[in-house]
Amino acid sequence: MAIAVEMPKMSDTMEEGVLVAWLAEEGASVSAGDVIAQVETDKATMDLEVYDDGVLLKRVVGEGDAVPIGALIAVLGKEGESADDIIGQYGGDGAAGDAAEVKAAPPATDEGNAAPSGLSGIAPVAQAIDTPAPSVQPVGGDGAAPSVTPAASADGDRVKASPLARRMATEGGLDLATVQGSGPDGRVVKRDVEAALAGTGQTKAPAASSAPAPVPAKAPAPAAQPVSAGGEDMRITQMRKTIAKRLAQSKFTAPHFYLTVDVDMTTAMAFRGDINALTEAQGLAKVSYNDLITKASAVALGRHPMVNASYLEDEGVIRKHDGAHVAVAVAMPEGLITPVVRDADRKGLAAIAAETRELAGRARDGKLDPAEYSGSTFTTSNLGMFGISEFTAIINPPNACILAIGAIRDIPVVKEGAVVPGKVMTLTLSCDHRVVDGASGAAFLGDVKAMLETPSLMLV
Hints:
By secondary structure, the chain is an alpha+beta fold.
């Protein structure tokens, strides 16, 4: 029996993946655990493994195609077996086709949108399907355009349509009996309804006796004017799509407020020099200023549980987390990723330094596992190495706060009534006001400042 291979969910924020490259040819024998393709997710490029033995009967999608989670991407089976039955179950719009025809009138129920059984158990989508084109018959010699012959339905008032197409038609006030289906056996699918609602799709002629008059199609939206005639278009990567969606959601959902403090880094700089003399002698990783801030933040999180919390609206709770899991923002050409240093409050500076460098290196190579960039309770973002003195960062959901780190600057400061040279770093804490109030955010930031100005406090 042929087996569907669907796009799996490879990260907690993934909604679709781009099939970067096929590593197995059609007709090749594969075993459970074999890698047949590489998939670009919102975080990294990952290997796609199969879970069954068999022959790769059909590669349904092409290299470079964006495929939603649960969509059909390949079919396995026995040598000589047909993949058509499996492909026929996927109705071209993300829902599996029903074996029987369904009435067009009633809207789809939740049960009607259930996914077919497969490797991931999630409903697949459409661009993966090779669908037959509708047949075209010329009209007499009057110069009229050829008409599309609709596929016959079982009877006059029954139409083949996927559950999603039925729901979209009902919401849009569209009579499915007037829509020409382009799916298998003339099935009406998502793209047919979208085209009909936009006024660009093929329609059926209504029956003389019983078919209702077609609903007037919506006028197509005016085409957007190009910004300029020149320039270069770049494909939006899965990572960039996720950044755009999640940070826009964060910015416009979580009420941000910002707290800024200047930190005298003179003692921290001397402390870092002493620590690195010890780590160098022992062959350990050097400690950076960012590592000091990670440690100080993690210790402070244990003292301020509301900063180490998440607002979970769907569950109706604010969850205070047990561990201090600090995500460190790492810049990449495609965007940004935040590998997580878990239980950073319990780790020494040398261990934090080594783990951070390993995670950052693997992040830039696109080799992080999903568990290594998920589950954070707090995030830091450092632009000091670029000479940025201060900035405000957007909260990384579901965290309640993110700490923006500026450069260490040589500026005059006043000490004991005298103006002297100083080494000052500016920290800005972005807070979700649904969770963190001004006083609690300020107390947390005050503890971070105190530990950086007196580093031995991190050890108490």
